[in-house]
Write a structure and sequence with these properties.
378 residues; alpha/beta; 7-stranded parallel β-sheet; Rossmann fold
Length: 378
């Protein structure tokens, strides 16, 4: 972004984050908004404020950290989203009081009467494959994303790959786009790759993650006589029923297993058991599990798609997600090459050090300052 304003030199800014994606299980966007809220609070200049917003009939919002204010509306999320997306009403100030920045962690705006409007766009997979997305995303995102992105005072992306897509495909001025990558966890990496242990895949069992292709690859490995445990960690929406059913049948039964969503307290231990992480996604706007694995000292195999090459650099082995045989042969070759696994472990640890939630939050504060100025001008 050009014309950067030192964020400590402007008047105090009140930032409100839509925390609803983190209200229950913190997958993808939920983890992003939770970590961003914590990092903004940790890096806030004197006088600057961070607050979070939620709406639900059943689930009550609890502040993610001391010093972060909460605004908890007892409103059904589906009804509120429909009104926001379709009517642009009610303004967030009606529900949360005066704020200077209203930041949505999704591509669609929070309506605001005076606040600068900010959206985060994690990827544009929903534009090309709406049929592979959840109902509300399928209904609203493809139809509205371009208009909302152009109206936003600031568009945040988590990779340069997505930033370029937003500028080109949504016709957004690059001067209103800022890239703030996701961060790596503050883990001490393990000292070596274990000689045994499972291969893992972390992510919601949704079509974009290509779990079906991974199971095809495991079927090929088993046919070639390589019996290696595969653990799938992540939520399972209704669309994942065929995948879960495959795990109960030969040849995968007893070899591949779904362990469900990982609570934060269990995540590090899960990674540390693994010999290898495989992320065969058709598209990723960042690929947080790959960075988490690298931070833990786990070698990674990822798709040569989306932002994964940008994020992983030379610290990963790459596969074609459309080719289960390529996935299978790459995994088999690595499992039989301890020196190569050790090289990837070391490269991954170094690569993970490039990603910091706090560094991204500091850049975000600067971008907020410009968004406030831009909002005032219009």
């Amino acid at each position: 972004m050009g014309g950067r304003t030192p964020y400590a030199s402007i008047r105090a800014v009140r930032v409100l984050l839509d925390y609803r994606p983190a209200l229950r299980a913190r997958t993808g966007v939920g983890e992003y908004v939770h970590r961003t809220a914590l990092a903004l609070r940790a890096t806030a200049p004197p006088g600057h404020q961070v607050a979070v917003f939620s709406s639900s009939w059943k689930d009550r919002l609890v502040s993610p950290a001391e010093g972060i204010a909460c605004h908890d509306a007892r409103a059904p999320v589906r009804i509120l989203n429909w009104a926001w997306h379709r009517l642009g009403w009610p303004p967030i100030e009606w529900l949360a009081g005066p704020v200077d920045v209203a930041h949505s962690p999704t591509p669609l705006l929070l309506p605001a009467s005076r606040a600068a409007q900010v959206v985060t766009i994690h990827d544009l997979f929903f534009l090309d494959h709406p049929e592979a997305t959840a109902a509300e995303v399928r209904r609203d995102y493809p139809a509205l994303v371009a208009a909302h992105a152009r109206q936003a005072d600031l568009v945040v992306t988590v990779s340069n790959t997505v930033a370029a897509q937003v500028a080109a495909r949504l016709d957004v001025d690059p001067g209103r786009i800022v890239t703030c990558p996701n961060g790596a966890p503050d883990w001490t990496p393990r000292a070596a790759v274990p000689a045994d242990g499972p291969v893992i895949c972390v992510g919601t069992l949704e079509p974009r993650k290509n779990i079906a292709g991974l199971l095809d690859a495991w079927t090929l490995l088993l046919a070639d006589g390589l019996r290696v445990p595969l653990l799938l960690a992540g939520g399972a929406p209704p669309s994942a029923a065929p995948l879960l059913e495959r795990l109960t049948r030969a040849p995968l039964t007893g070899v591949a297993r779904h362990v469900g969503y990982l609570q934060e307290r269990d995540r590090r231990a899960f990674y540390e058991r693994a010999r290898l992480l495989v992320l065969p996604s058709f598209d990723e706007g960042f690929g947080l599990p790959a960075v988490e694995a690298m931070a833990a000292g786990v070698p990674v195999v990822v798709s040569r798609r989306g932002a994964l090459p940008e994020v992983c650099g030379d610290a990963a082995a790459y596969v074609d997600p459309d080719d289960p045989r390529d996935i299978a042969s790459t995994v088999a070759a690595l499992l039989c090459a301890p020196d190569r696994l050790e090289d990837l472990r070391r490269r991954g640890i170094e690569r993970a050090r490039h990603f910091s939630w706090q560094a991204s939050a500091q850049r975000l504060w600067e971008a907020y300052a410009q968004a406030v100025t831009r909002r005032s001008a219009r």
